[in-house]
Records
---
Amino acid sequence: MTTDRAGEGISGKSLNAKGTGLIMFAGAGSRSRAVLAVNSLIAEFPAQRDRALLWSPVAFGAGAAIYLGLKHEPQVWPSALTVLIAGIVFLGLWLWGRRYWLSLLAGMVLLGASGFLVAKLHSDAMAAPIAPVRAGFARIEGWVMDVDTPSPRGERLLIAPVRISGLTPDQTPVRVRIVLGTPGGPEAAPPPGTPIALSALLDPPPGPAVPGGYDFARDAWFSGIGGVGLAQTPPDYAPLPPAPWPLRLEMAVNALRRKVASQLVADIRGVMGPNDGGAAGLAAAVTTSHQDWLAPGQRDDLRASGLAHMLAIAGLHTAAVSGFAFFAARALFAAIPWLALRFPAKKLAALVALVAVGAYLLLSGAHAPARRAAITASVAFFAILVDRRAVSLHSLAVAALLILVMEPEVVVSPGFEMSFCATAALIALAEVWRLPSRATDLPWALRLLQRGRDILLGALAVSVVAGAATSPFAIQHFNRMANYGVLANLTADLVASLALMPALALALAAQAVGLDPGFLSPVLLAAGWAARTVLEIGQTFAQAPGSGLSWPSAPEAALLVSYLGIVFACLWRGRLRLLGVILSFAVLVWPRGPAPAAWIANDGGDAAVAVHGEAVPLRPDMRAYALGQWAQRRALRLPANLDAAAVAHFTCNRLSCRPRGEDHPAIAAWWTRRSPKPQMLADLCSQADVLILRAEAATPAECQAAIVLRREDFEKGGAAELYPESGGWRLDWAQARRGERPWSLSDSAG
C-alpha cells in the first residue's frame, strides 16, 4: 500500500490493496485514525476466503431454526422451490467464477433454505400418533424399552406399547413414558426387554410450563414419544407376541447398559464400602447415562456448581475415553517393533479410538448429546486417517453439519448450543495461543516449574473461555450463573479426564475380556475415589457463599445476538472478532421487560403470585415442577416453607382458594368439576381479580369485574402469566407463542 504526499490540496486517493479496493483519505498531511481503523478492519475480509466453509453449518442451522420458530406449519413445496432456485443461482455464479463474494452469499442462502427443508422433512418423517386429550385411565401393554432418568415420584419407563385400552392401533403412540408411582429404587424397575402391563393416567406430552419456556412436547415429537403418564398399578408380566427385531435389538442393548450400570455400582461399592459418598452412582451415570443410583441432592450440587455437563454424556466423557484409547493404543503399537516398522501406529490408534467411540456411544444409550460428541470425535479421528488436522474448526464444522442434517431440531437445544460454542471457542483459543519460548539451558527443576506454570495457565484459559462461551445459554435456559464455575470446572474436569474416565474405560475393558477380579480392584478403587472427588468438588462450590446468581430469561432476540456473537468471534480471523465478543454479552446486559405478577398452570390446577421476590403458590402440593420452572425463569425465590407461605396469602380447601390480604393480582379458584352454588362464586369473585373456574357453571353478576378462566381457556392457551396493565391485567398465553405446530396441536392442559 502506498500514499501520496505530493500535494496538500489533494483530499483523497483511491488505493488498491490486494484487490480490496480500499479508499484512504488524507488531509493536511495526516490520516484520520478512525478511517485507518476502518480500512484495517476491511482489509481482514480477504483473510476469510479459506474460512468460508466454516459458516456452512451456521447457515444450515439458521434455516432449521427459522422452521422451528414459525407459528404455523409450512408446506413442503415453497421451501423445495426455494432450494431449487437458490441452487441454480449458486451454480450459475460458481460456474461464472467472477463474483466470489456474491457466489458465497448465494451458497449461504442455499444452505439456509436446505436447512429449512431438511427440518420440515424430518419433522414430517417423525409424525406419529399422540395420546388424545383427557385420555384418562388406560391399560397399557407393551415392552420396556429403557429406564429413563428418575423423577421425584419414582422410576421412569420408556415403553413401546402393543395395546392401549380405548385406543385403536392407528391411535396408539409409538412410545410412551410412564412414571412408576411406587418408590423402590433402581432395582424396582423392570429391566429393558420385559413385557409388562399396567394401568396409568395417560396424557399427551405437556407443553411449556410457562410461556416461552422449555417445550417438552416438541422434544417428545422428535423422539417419537406420544404420551406420558403416572402408573396407578405396579407393572405386571404380560404375555405379548414377539417384538420386531429392531426393537429387540434396541432392548438388548439397553438391557446390557442396565446390567453394566448395576454391576459397576455393586463392584465400586464392594471396594469402597456402602458409604461411598455417591461415587458408584456418578460412575454409573458417566458410563451408561443411568442416574438412578445418584442422590437427587448430588445432582443438584453438580448443576449449581456449573458441573451439570458431568451428568450428560457428551464431549468431556467421549474425549476422555477416546483420547485414552488413542494414546494407550499408540503407545502399545509403538512398543511392538514388528508392528511399528510396518504400519503407521498413529493411524492404527485412530482406528482403535473410533471403535472405542462406537462402543461408548452404544453403552451410553446414544442420547442426543452422546451422538453429537461421537460424531465430533469420529470426524477428528477420521481426519488422522486421511492425514488432516484432527482438531480444527473445519473438522468441527463438518461434525456440526452432519449432526444438523441428521437432527436439525437440535439447533435450538441447550446441549448443542453449549457444546459446540464451547468447542469452537477452545479451538479458536488454540489458534491465537502462542506457546512461550523457553531457554534450553535451564536446570531441570526450573524447566519443570515452567512447564507446570504453562499447564496451569492453559487449563485456566480453557476453563475461562469455555465458561464464557456457555454462560449466555446457562443464563437464558437455566437462569443461573455459577460464580465459581471456572474453578469448579478447572478441578473437576481435570480429575474426570485424568483419572475417572480412563479408570472406568480400563475397568470396563478388563471386565469385557474377563480379567482377574484382583486386577480390577485397584482400578475400581481409583475410579471410585475420582468420582467421589468430583462430587465433593461439586458440593463445595455449590454450597460456598455467593455460589450462584439468578437471572431472569432475556427476550429471544438477546440469545440470538449472543449466539451469533460467539460464533462470529470464533470463526472470524482478525481483530474484528472483538465485535463478536462484545455481542456475546447481549443476554447479560439486555433489558428485561416488566416481570409477571402471577402464573397459572397449563391446566388451571395451580397458580402462584410474585410477592417480594418470592413465588407463592396457591396449592404447594400440586404442580411443583411447573412452579419451579416459573420461579427459575423469572429469577424468583421459592419460600423455604411453601405451605406456610401459601397459608399466609390464601385460604384454601379441597374445593376452592380465595386470596387473603391485599396482594394483587388477587387470584381465586374453584378446583373441582362439581358446579358450585352461585353464591359461592359470587363470594370468590368479590375478592378476586382473576377466577379459575374448572366447573361448568354460569358466572353471576359479581364476576363481571374479574377475569374468569375456564377449562376451555387452558385447553386453548396452556399456561399463562399475568402482567399489570392500565386499568387491569394482561394475560400472556404459552400456546400463543408456540403457534399451531404438529407437536402443539394435540397438547392440552391434561
---
Amino acid sequence: MSAQTDRFVHDRLPPRNQWPQLRYDLAELRFPDRLNLVEELLDKGAGKGFGERALLRSSRITLTYSDVRERVDRICRVLTEDLGLVPGNRVLLRGGNSVGLSLAWLAVVKAGLVAVATMPLLRARELGDIIDKAQPAAALCDAKLLEELELARKDRPVLATVIPFNAPDQPGSLAARAAQKDGGFAPCPTAADDIAMMAFTSGTTGKPKAAVHTHRDVLAACEAWPRHVLRATPDDIVVGSPPLAFTFGLGGLLMFPMWAGASVYFPDAPYTPESMVRTINETGATICYTAPTFYRQMAPFAREHGVRHLRISVSAGEGLPDATRQLWKQATGLEMLDGIGATEMFHIFISAAGDDVRPGAIGKAVPGYIAKVVDDDGNEVPRGTIGKLAVIGPTGCKYLDDPRQANYVKDGWNYPGDAFMQDEDGYFFYQARADDMIITSGYNVGGPEVEDALLRHPAVAECGVIGKPDEERGMIVKAFCVLKPGHSADAAMAKALQDHVKASIAPFKYPREIEFVAGLPRTETGKLQRFKLRQS
C-alpha cells in the first residue's frame, strides 16, 4: 500500500494501457513491495561495511556514509517537522553539483517526498513551466541561484516555501535549521511503486517533458548497468560533469557510487576540460563521467598531464563519434565505456566495456533489458538494416500528464527516438535520432556518421550535421563546423572538408553545404540541439 498521502503524481500517471512493459527477469531485480531507495542505499550502508568509508567529498569536507546519514536525517526532520510536508509532496531542488545538493536530494526522497531537480542555468520562465507542471510545495535552492526562482514563484502561490540549502550562517537556511535537529529519522515506509523523483527531459527537441520514476525504478537501474557493465568497487572515487538534475548525472554521480560503496568528489566550480584532468589527478579519481565533446576537449590535457589513477571513462548523453573514442584512447590508453540511456528509462540500457567493445558500436543490451530494431509498424527488421530502437526492461517511460506518452510507449515497448542498426552478433550501432535521419536521393544518411568523419580532419573542433530540404534530392547533407584556431573559414576549407568526407565514407554522404560557425547550440548537459540548427 502506498505511503504517499499526496496523490498528485500518482493521479497524473499515464493510463495503464499506455504504460511500458516492466520486466524483472533477473533475481537481483525482484524487490519487496515495501521499499525506500535511500534506506537501501544509505541507511543499510553500515551493514555492508561502508559506514566509515567516504561518500561525499569536496575541497572543504569529506563525509562518510554514517556522516551523510546523520545529516540527511536532520534535513528530513526540517522537511517534515518545520515545513509540515507529507509523503507525495513535491520539492523542487535547484543548485549545481555539490555535497549540499546531494544531501538535500537524499533527504527529500528518504522522507517519502518527490524530488524535482532542476538545471542550475534555467531562467525564471523555464522554472515557471516546471512549477506549473510539478506543483511543488517547497524548494531547496543554492543561495546563489535564488533570484530566478524568486521571479518564477511571484505569481505561483503553490510554491509556498523557498529555503537556501548551503548558507549555514544565514538564519532560516536549511543548514542552520538542520543543525538544531536530532538525527535518527525513520525512513518513510514507501511502497516500491511510490514516486521518488520527477526528471525533466533536456529539451533537445523542444518543450521538456516530466518523466516519473519510482523507488523500484531507481534501484532496478542500480542493479542493471552498474552491476553488469560498470562494476565499480568501494575503492572507486568518481568525478564527472553531468548535472545531478540530469539522470545521467544523478545515476553516475550519486546513486551508482552509493550502490557500490564508492565515493564522489564535487568541485568548487563547474569543470573546464583542463580542471577536470587536474581534479582527476589531484583526487585520485578512478571513474569519470562526461559527454563526448568534453572528452575531446580534455584529450590534449590528459596527454600532457596523464590521468594516473583513472580506470573507467564513461561516455553518454549523446552519440560517441569513433574519432573521439580513438583520440581519448591515444591520449590516455583507456578504452571508453560508451552507453545509451534516456531520462525516460532513468539510465543506460545499451553498453559495452573492456574486451566487449566493438569499434563503432555502442554495445549490447544491458542484462535486464531487451532491445530490438524495428520498422514503423513495430516489426523487427533484418540484422544490418536501419530502423527504430525499441526497448523493454525493469525501467520505462511514465510521463506526468503528457499526451506524448503515446509516442514513446507502443505495445509496451519504449521508443527512445533513435535510429539504430544491429549486427548478427547483437551489437547496436547508433545512426541518428530517428527524426535526424537524412534521406537524400533515396539514401539514408546518419548525421553522426558524417560528423565522425569531419571530426577526423585536423581543422575541425566541433561539428553538427542536419538534413536541409532540397527540391532535387529531397534533402541534402549540411554541416555546421567550428574550426580550430589558425584555420580559415573559406571556400577552400569547405572543399577540403568535403573531399575528406568523400575519402572517408561513401561519397554520397558528403556535406554538399558547409557553414562555418563560432559555436554550436547545446543543452546544459552538452547535447547538440540539431533542431536549432535546422531552424537557422
---
Amino acid sequence: MIDFNNEDIQELISKEWIVTNGIGGYASSSVTGTNTRRYHGILISSANPPLERMLMVSKVEERIIFSNREIRLSTNQYPQNFYPEGYRFIQSFERKPLPVTNFEAYGAKLSKSVFMVHGSNTTIIEYKNTSNIGYQLWLNPLYAGRDFHALLHERDNYDYYTAANDRFQAVYPSHGADPVFFRHTAGTFVKGPTWNKQLTYYIDQERGYDCTEDIYSTGYLSCMLAPGAVVHLVFSMDEEMMEKNPLELKEQELKRLKGLVPENVHNDFLADLITAGDQFIVKRKSTGGYSVIAGYHWFSDWGRDSMIALRGLCIATGKQEEAASIIRTFLEYLKEGLIPNRFPDYKDDLPEYITIDATLWLFISVYEYDQKFNDKEFLQSIYPKLQEILDHHIKGTMHNIHVTEKGFIAGGENGIPLTWMDARINEYSFTARAGCPVEIQALWYNALKIFVHVSEKLGEAVSTTITDLTVQVKTEFERAFWNDECYLNDLVTEENEADPTVRPNQIYAISLPFRLLDKEKEKMVLDNIAENLVTPVGLRTLETYHFKFKCSYSGDVWSRDAAYHQGTVWPFLLPEYLMAYLRVNDHSDDAKRKVQEHLKALKKHFYEAECLHAISEVFDGIEPKEGKGCIHQAWSVSNLILLLINENLEI
C-alpha cells in the first residue's frame, strides 16, 4: 500500500499499475489517476486477440459535491501545470488483489477499484462511499477510440456520436467504427459533449515522442451516494456485458486471481509474482491457443520471449495446458525451420522470422516441459516439427543460418541482428553479432542433446549426423570460445576471429540443462560476470570500461537503442546468473543465503517502484535504480518465478 502523506506529485505519478484481460487488452494508469503516457487508459481493447489494440476509454474524472463544496478528485497534467490537483485528496493506493484508490476530502471518503473481465474487452470501475455522510458523485468518462500507439487531437475530425437506450450507451468514435458500450448502475447521465485539450504525457516527452492529446467527453454522470452505497461503471466492446451483474463479475475475477496460485505456494512474494505473471498469458485468436505477451504496454507475442518466459509462467507453475498450447502456437507458424520472432500488431501483416535463437529456446522449453509433466503423447505430436527444425538448420535456412565446419551454428547477413541483442534503426544495427555468438552455441548444443533425449524416450532412431554434431560441438566449443583471460568470448567468426567483449551471453554455457565446461572453468566465467556485469537488479549487457558502454538508458529512440545492449541492465538475466551460481556451488545453504540476499532489491522494485507488482524491462547501466523501458516484462517476472520454484527459495 502507498501512503500519500508525501505530496511530491512527480514521485507519485512515476508509480503505475496495470490489470489485463487475458486476450491482450488492459487498463493502466499512474496511482494518482494521471495518465503519463499514451498507453495509459481505462479500456485498451484487443480487436484481434492478443493484438490490434485500441485505446477506447482514456479515464474517468471524479468530483464529490456536498455542503456547498465541490472537490475535484482527478489529476491531469497540462503543458504548464497540473490541474486539478486531486492527488492531494488521495489517502492511499493498494494494488492487491485489485487496484484500489482511497480518497478523503473534508470528511467525505470514496473508494475506487478497477478490474477487467477475463476473456472480454471489458473494464469495470467500482466507486463506494466509505464515509458516514452522503454526497453527490460526479463522473465524467473521457473517450479516445484510437490505435494505442497514436495520439488523438480535435483537429483530426473525429466524428463522435452516441446511441442510447434506457439501459446503456454506445459511443462511436466515428461512422463505421466499433462502439464502446457504457453502462452505469446508478445516477443520471447528463449530455454535454466537449473536448479536454492538451493533456500532457511526460513519459512520452522524456522518450522523445509527441506528448499532448485531446480527449472527448459525451457528458457526465451524476448520482447520490449514501454511506456504504456503490455505483459501477461498465465499459465494454461486448454488448452482452451490459446485461451482466458487475458485483458477480468482480467476485468471479477475485476467485480467478486467488486460484492462480498453486496450493503448495505459501511464500507471498512468489504468490504475487505468479499472479503478476499470469497477465502475460493470453489467448491468440488465430490459433485458438495460448501465447505470451512479451511485455506491457506495447509489445506483442514474441517467439524468443515466449519460449524463455513460459518456463516460469507455465511449466514451473504446473500450467500444463497453457505450456503445451504456447509451444504448439509457435510451431504452427514454423517456416523453414524457424518459429516467428514476432507476431505483428495488425492481422494483415505477416509474422517476422528475424531470429537465430527463438527456435532453439523452444527446445529448452520442450525439455523442461518433459521433466515437469512427462507427457509422452505431447512429445510424439511435436516430434516431426523438432526433426524439421534440425534438418533445416543443418542444410541451412533463412538469414544465412547454417552449420559451420566445426558444427557451430552461424548466421547473419546485411547487418541484420538475429540474437536477443537486436536493437536496430532502419538499416543500422547496434549489436549485429554476425557469426557464431556464444549463447547460440550453448542453445544449439542443448537443442541437439534434447532432440536425442526426446528421440530415445519415444523409441525413435537418431541419425549419425545429429549424434556426430552433438559430440563435435562439445569438443570444439571450449577450443573456440575459451580465451586467455579465463572467460568465454562473446562471438567467434567462421574465420576463427574472436570477440572477447565481456557480455552476459556466456552465462548460458552454464545455466542451460546441458553444460559445455568443466566446473573450474564455470567458476571462472561466473567470477568474470560478477566482477564486470552483476548489479543488484540485473546484469549489464556490456562491461563498463568498453568504449561502447552507455551508462544511461534515456533520451530519444536513437539514444535508447544505442544503449539497449551496450551496458543497460536487464533483470531477466539475474535469475539466470543466480541459477548458474547455485548449480556451480552445489546448491549449498550458504549459496542460497547469498542468492536470497541478492534478490531483495528486485523484490523492493516489484512492490514499491515504477509499475507496482511488476518488474521493469531494463535499468541504467550505472546506478540502476529506476526501472525503464517496458513497465512489466514477461521474462523479468518469469525467470524470477523459475528461480524461486526450482530452488525452493523464500525472499
---
Amino acid sequence: MKIDLHRRQFLAGSASALSMSILPTRLWATAEKDTVPAAPVARIEVVHDTYFAETLSDPYRWMENSKDPDWLPFLKAQNDRTRVVLDPLPRRAALLKRIEQLSGDTVSTPRVQRAGGLTFIQQRPLGADNFKLFVRQGASGADRLLVDPTAMSSTKSHVSLDWWRASPDGKYVAYGLSKDGSEDSLLHVLAVADGKDLPETIANTEAGNPQWLDDASGFFYTQLIGAVATPERYLDAQARFHKLGTDPNSDPILMKRGLVAGIEYDKIQVPAIVTSLGSRYAILQLTDVRPEGRGYIAPLKDVLAGQANWISFAGFEDEVTDLELDGDDLYLLVNKGSPRGRIVKTSAGAPNIATATLMVPQNMLVIEKTARARDGIYLKIMDGGISRLQRLARDGKVTDIILPFDGTIGAVFAEATEDGVLISLQGWLNPSGIWSVDSSGRLADTGITPKPAIDVSAYEAKRFFATAKDGVKIPYTLIYRKGMQQNGSNPTWISAYGSYGLAAYTPTFAGRTLALIDAGAIVGYANVRGGGEYGREWHKAGQLTNKPNTWRDLIAVCEELIGKKYTSSKHLAIGGRSAGGITVGRAMTERPELFAAVIDGVGWSNPLRYIVEQDGYTEEPEWGAISDPAGYRALKTIDSYQSVRDGTPYPAVLLTTGVTDPRVAPFHLAKMTARLQVASTSGKPILLRVDYDAGHGIGSTRAQQDREAADTYAFLLWQLKGAKAG
C-alpha cells in the first residue's frame, strides 16, 4: 500500500511482440553510412563553481535555461543532424516495419481492478497507439470503453492516461490525463453507468493517488503546488479531500508542512492520506525517494472532520516499506534489522512496532510488496530477479503459490471483498498476461490479455552470474537465437539500472527487442547493485558513496562476456534509461575502450546541477545533498558530464530526450552531447535524438516508442557491425 514517487524511476521498454518471422538476411547486407555530418557547435560560456574548496568548470551552463534563445535551435540542429544520419541507414526502414508488427499485434494490460462486481481494465488493444480504460461485468463480460485518450489527441499533440482508480462500489472512476508525456495530470471523475465526466476537475495531480471512501462520496488526494518546470515543482505537496459534486477550490487541505502541530517534515516529503475498505482508520504517509516512509494513523471520521490526532507508528529509521490496514489490525513490512523484510502485526488503535506480533520472519527471499484480499495478505517476493508469490493467512500460515514459469509479477491486484488476486505475469519468452489466483492457490490465465500467436522455440534466455572486483556475484541474463556461436563476434547490447532499490530489468517479454535479436544480436540485462534484487543490502551497496559499485558491476558483466567470447569490445554496447544514465555514463567515462557504443535514454548525466531542475531536491536521500561535503563528493563521483575528458576516444553514443520530460531535464542530455562531441577523438558519432511531444517516456504512444526503438537498433547494428552477408 506504500505510495511510491520515484521521480527518476526506470522506464521499462515495451513488452509487446508477436510473429517470430525472421527478416531476410539480404535486408541487412547493405552498405553502411560512411560519413557523419559535422555536429552543430554549441555556444560556450564557462561558469566556475566552487564546492568545498574545489572549483569545477561548466561550459554549457546556459543550456539549463529553456528560455535561452539558443536552446531550442540547438536541440533542433542536433536532432536534424541525427535524422540525417539515422533515417538513411538501410536497416532502419526494415527494423521499423518489424517493430511495428511486434508492438501493434500485441495487447498490453498494465493494470486491472475489481470493484462492485465489475472489472476495470487499462489496456492498449490490438493495433492501438495508446492505453484506454475499459469496464466489463464480472470477469468475462463484454468490454465497454470508458476513457480513450486517443480521441482527445491531434496529429501534433497527444494525451495520455496517467493513472486511475475506481470507487469500491464501481460507480465512479477518478483518473488523470496529461499532454505530450508531461505527466502533469488533470484529475477527472466519471460516472461508470453512463461514462460521462462529472463537472469538477482538479489540476496539479501528478501524484494524485485518489483514495476513495467506502461509500464513494469522495476521495483523498495529493496535489502539487510548485510551478511546472521549476525546482519547486515537487516540494511542499499537500493532501486534500474532495467531496463529489463540490467545487475543488474549496477542498479542505488536511496535511501540508506547518499545518498540524507536532508533525514536522521536510519539504521534499509528499503527504498522502490512505484509506482501506472496511476500516474505521485512515493512514497518513510521508514519503520521498526512499523505499521507506513515515506513517501516522487516526480515526477516519476525525480526519474527515479536520480534527485528526495523528498517532505515529513508523519513522524513516524503522524502514517500513509497505503496510496493510485490515480492520483494526495493521500489518507492516519492516526492513530495519531485517533487510530482506519481515511482516509484523500490531493494533491500529495503538500501533507499536516494538511489541508487534511477528507474522513472517526474514528469510533468504525479499518481501517486496503486500496486497490485502479477503482470504489473506498476498506477498510479492523477489528472488534475485525472479518473482515469487505467497499468501499470509490471518492465522499466520504462509503458503507458497507456484507460478507457471519463472518470470516477473508486475503487480498484485487485490480487493478486500474478494478472495484471491489477479496478477500481471510475464517472462523473457512468455508474453504478459493477467492471471487469477484463487484461495486454494490455483492459477489460471484470465484471457484479459490475449496471447499473441508466437513461436519462441527459436530463442533462448539464460541467466548467469559474473564476479565483481570485490567477489560479489552479479546476476545477468542473455537472450539470443539458438545456435549462437561463442566466437567473440556477436553484436551484444547489455542494459543496466541499479537505483532506488528497484529490481529493474527482471524477466520482461522480449517484445520489440526480437527485431534486434533476429538480426543476430544478443540482448542482455545486468542486475547491478543499487537495485532491489536482493533486498535493502543490495540497494545500499549501490547507493550514495557506494554508487561506483553500480557501474563497476556492469563493467564486470561486460568483461565476463568478452572473456567467454560471447562478444568483444568492438561488438559490445551498453544501455541505460533514466537513473540508468548514471550507470552507463560512468561506465563509459571510466572504461571508454571497453565499448563500441552506448545508448543513454533520457539519462541523468549532470547530477551536480540537480538544484535547478524541477525533479531535484526530492532526490537527495538517494544521491546526496550538495550542501554537505560528503553529499558533494558522492554527486561528483556519479556525474558523467564532469567526468568527460578531452582527447579521449569515446564510443559511439546515442542520447535521447523528450522536451516535456518532468523527471530528467533535457539539459542533462544536451550538455552531455555537446561535451562529448568536443572531447571525443574516436571519430565515432555522438548523436542527440529529440522528441518534441514526449517526456520521460511514461506517456509516450506506441508509435513514438516504435520509432525510438528503430533508431536505437539501427544505430546499434551500424556501430556493432551486426550485418551478415547474404
